[in-house]
């Protein structure tokens, strides 16, 4: 099957969040299953020379974007069985940041036109065009028109994946024809119209042949206004073509037996190395070297929907337990300041690392004992899966992918991969964290069983890729 995967960011070339990890790993998993997979993304300024030196210039043409005809260059790079196409236009993409510009609507409309028009220039006939989030939401809509105009798209079907419904691509109606190049007929209740504005994600949900989200629980949660950010009615209208598929992680990259960023390697059969990693983390974070005190860690953007109101409210109660704590991340100033103050109040026991660092995050995954992730909403989440891979047990709220990926510890059966709580309530968080800390201190054998359960859980992309292949087969008949 020919699969054309469109995303605004793709690891390892350019990354700001989980979308890049998905766009980097899922196509490779599909390629391993024997499919012809090609990924298309913008050629941003932030894509380094080490990657650019491996690219081959293919051709250029002019995009049809309403009355505009901007230049579009295509560069190619082949890696791990996948062909990557980089869309070149320095006016749109030679910028320090990849999002947050005044003309993002135009920049990503241009990218969507490049996705639609490039198969005709490249001689590639996709069976499926798989689009991701609002930045590619115009592709399924453009495909409705171009199937009849471009022979290479004649049999193409579209899949649209919602990674985070909070960001929808909402713009004024005046952009419909002048910028997006779409007729007024698309401005209606079952396409782009949304309270007088244009909503690109809404249009993609209606236009796509199939819609997915990044976990089964998140798909169910989107029926409710609390999670759907105004699109619960749209989700209900399209429930017949909606499915949640849990993301995976790159199990080669995230492997404590081969991760060179760790002080000492270990696996589920030889856990001794994790003790050395814990000591290294304590030194790195400025914590007291105490091998028998559990280290609770957070690696996250410090924002409200990640549950940091709960963490800040419960902070002193957490520190009343026999624990150490390290927080790594940046975000809202009030959370940053609360954690800086905690580091001053609890020297040697609390570490506030207000930054982003790959090396520090690896040290945390490898050396911490508990990974706190009390999100208010979490479409999928990858951090809890990575933590489990390293034998760092997650403490999570039962929402989205956290509920789907973490099995709560059952003392009676010995089953489970972590600790969970249901309500958005600091007392519930404290109760389950106390349970985890008590198990750590009182029952080392059970703790080790729980670690091994977590480390051997299957979060490979092969499982998820099989689910996507099933959807592709439904909509194409192949």
Describe this structure in words.
The protein is 39% helix and 18% strand. It contains 19 helices and 18 strands. Strands 3-4-5-2-1-6-7-11-12 form a 9-stranded mixed beta sheet, sandwiched between helices. Strands 15-14-13-16-17-18 form a 6-stranded parallel beta sheet, with helices on both faces. The chain has a 3-stranded antiparallel beta sheet with strand order 8-10-9. α5 (138-146) crosses α7, α11 (272-285) crosses α14 and α12 packs parallel to α13. It starts with a strand and ends with a helix.
Q: Count of DSSP helices?
A: 19
Q: By helix and strand content, what is the structural category?
A: alpha/beta
Range of strand content: 15-25%
Question: What's the mean pLDDT score?
Answer: 96
End-to-end Cα distance, whole Å, is 8 Å
Strand elements, count: 18
Rg (CA only): 23 Å
Fraction of residues in H or I helices: 25-40%
Shape: globular
Please list the strands of the largest sheet in the order they lie side by side: 3-4-5-2-1-6-7-11-12
Short recap of the structure:
The protein has 478 residues and is an alpha/beta fold. The protein has 19 helices and 18 strands.
Task: Fill in the keyword field for this structure.
alpha/beta; about 20% strand; 19 helices; 18 strands; about 475 residues; 6-stranded parallel sheet; 9-stranded mixed sheet
SSE arrangement:
Elements: E1 2-6, H1 18-32, E2 36-42, H2 49-52, E3 56-62, E4 71-79, E5 82-88, H3 90-93, H4 104-122, E6 128-132, H5 138-146, E7 157-162, E8 170-172, H6 175-178, E9 193-194, E10 197-199, H7 200-207, E11 210-213, H8 216-221, H9 225-228, H10 232-237, E12 242-244, H11 272-285, E13 295-299, H12 308-319, E14 324-328, H13 333-345, E15 350-353, H14 358-367, E16 370-373, H15 383-389, E17 393-397, H16 400-405, E18 419-421, H17 426-442, H18 444-455, H19 461-476
Parallel strand pairs: 1-2, 1-6, 2-5, 6-7, 7-11, 11-12, 13-14, 13-16, 14-15, 16-17, 17-18
Antiparallel strand pairs: 3-4, 4-5, 8-10, 9-10
């Amino acid at each position: 099957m020919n699969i054309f995967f469109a995303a605004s960011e793709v690891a390892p070339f350019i990354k700001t969040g989980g979308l890049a990890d998905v766009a980097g790993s899922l196509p490779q998993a599909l390629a391993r299953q024997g499919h012809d997979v090609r990924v298309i993304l913008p050629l941003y300024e932030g894509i380094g020379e080490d990657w650019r030196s491996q690219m081959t210039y293919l051709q250029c043409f002019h995009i049809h974007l309403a009355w505009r005809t901007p230049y579009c260059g295509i560069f190619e790079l082949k890696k791990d069985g996948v062909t990557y196409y980089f869309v070149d236009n320095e006016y749109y993409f030679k910028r320090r940041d990849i999002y947050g510009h005044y003309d993002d609507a135009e920049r990503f409309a241009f990218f969507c036109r490049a996705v639609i028009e490039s198969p005709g220039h490249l001689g590639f006939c996709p069976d499926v065009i798989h689009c991701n989030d609002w930045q590619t939401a115009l592709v399924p809509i453009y495909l409705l028109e171009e199937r009849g105009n471009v022979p290479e798209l004649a049999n193409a079907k579209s899949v649209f994946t919602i990674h985070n419904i909070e960001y929808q691509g909402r713009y004024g109606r005046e952009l419909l024809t002048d910028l997006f190049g779409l007729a007024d007929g698309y401005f209606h209740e079952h396409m782009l119209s949304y309270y007088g504005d244009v909503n690109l994600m809404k249009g993609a949900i209606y236009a796509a042949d199939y819609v997915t989200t990044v976990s089964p629980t998140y798909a169910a949660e989107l029926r409710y206004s609390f999670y759907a950010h105004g699109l619960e009615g749209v989700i209900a209208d399209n429930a017949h073509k909606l499915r949640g598929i849990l993301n995976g992680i790159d199990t080669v990259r995230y492997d404590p037996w081969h991760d060179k960023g760790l002080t000492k390697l270990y696996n589920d059969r030889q856990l001794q190395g994790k003790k050395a990693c814990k000591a290294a983390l304590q030194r790195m974070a400025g914590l007291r070297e105490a091998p028998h005190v559990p280290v609770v860690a957070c690696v996250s953007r410090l924002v409200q929907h990640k549950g940091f109101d709960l963490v800040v409210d419960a902070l002193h109660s957490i520190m009343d337990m026999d624990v150490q704590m390290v927080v790594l991340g940046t975000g809202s100033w009030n959370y940053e300041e609360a954690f800086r103050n905690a580091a001053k109040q609890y020297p040697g026991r609390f570490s506030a690392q207000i930054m982003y660092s790959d090396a520090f995050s690896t040290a945390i995954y490898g050396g911490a004992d508990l990974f706190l992730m009390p999100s208010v909403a979490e479409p999928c989440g990858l951090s809890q899966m990575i933590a489990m891979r390293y034998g760092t047990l997650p403490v999570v709220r039962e929402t989205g992918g956290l509920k789907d990926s973490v099995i709560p510890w059952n003392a009676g059966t010995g089953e489970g991969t972590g600790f969970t709580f249901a309500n958005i309530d600091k007392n519930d968080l404290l109760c389950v964290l106390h349970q985890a800390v008590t198990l750590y201190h009182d029952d080392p054998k059970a703790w080790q069983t729980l670690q091994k359960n977590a480390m051997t859980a299957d979060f490979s992309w092969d499982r998820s890729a099989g689910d996507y292949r099933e959807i592709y087969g439904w909509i194409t008949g192949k």
